[in-house]
């Protein structure tokens, strides 16, 4: 893909205090190569490529006390308008929209339940150029204790329409944007996370073999948060990298 439609997750990046460790861990895990931005103001921001195509990024945290986290970016035609909609819908503007060199314009927001997400208005960089393939982002999922509030918020901000998809005894919501389901939402199910943890966006990466990837992650210093399990969408496992950033990998069902 060379462009991503507005309202669709288009990019993900990792904020981490140990950028050098991330540059070692993820290429070993996913077969990525890293391209470090040469501009001093980019602070070592690294674009990860799979088969020569951008799939994700990594950079230093915005604040010293920020926990390591993978962020979901949603494509937008107007980052400033998105910020206005976030505030009107009861969310927070954490970082007001700004230009990222000549690559694009981004803003960082939080929904009313605390889930942090970003928007990306492309200029030279459209976002990721590979999706739904091993080593690339394949899904983005909101885990929220307030699904009803989230349904109102994200419809106002992105025009997403929630569609209920009951799964495994709990309510699962698909976010429809136009003709496509572009993301999902589920309630917290434990998974070893603190009971008072705020809502958050989870990023999924496709792999060929979820079990082998989980085992490889542990040898590289990561940890398995939830062991590999089968779902209708494929076999998945939630992992943490050596600095604690959460992400999920899935071997997609045919």
Q: How would you sum up this structure, described in words?
A:
The chain is α+β, with helices and mostly antiparallel strands and 254 residues long. It folds into two domains: 114 residues, 2,3-Dihydroxybiphenyl 1,2-Dioxygenase, domain 1, CATH 3.10.180.10; 116 residues, 2,3-Dihydroxybiphenyl 1,2-Dioxygenase, domain 1, CATH 3.10.180. Helix content is 17%, strand content 42%. It is built from four helices and 16 strands. The strands form two sheets. An eight-stranded mixed beta sheet has the order 2-3-4-1-5-8-7-6, covered by helices on one side. An eight-stranded mixed beta sheet has the order 10-11-12-9-13-16-15-14, covered by helices on one side. The radius of gyration is 17 Å and the shape is globular.
What's the short version?
The protein is of the alpha+beta class. The protein has helices at 19-30, 79-88, 147-158, 210-219; strands at residues 9-15, 33-36, 46-50, 53-59, 69-75, 92-100, 104-110, 116-122, 137-143, 161-164, 173-177, 180-186, 200-206, 223-231, 234-240, 246-252. The chain has 2 domains: 9-122, 2,3-Dihydroxybiphenyl 1,2-Dioxygenase, domain 1 (Roll), CATH 3.10.180; 137-252, Roll (2,3-Dihydroxybiphenyl 1,2-Dioxygenase, domain 1), CATH 3.10.180.
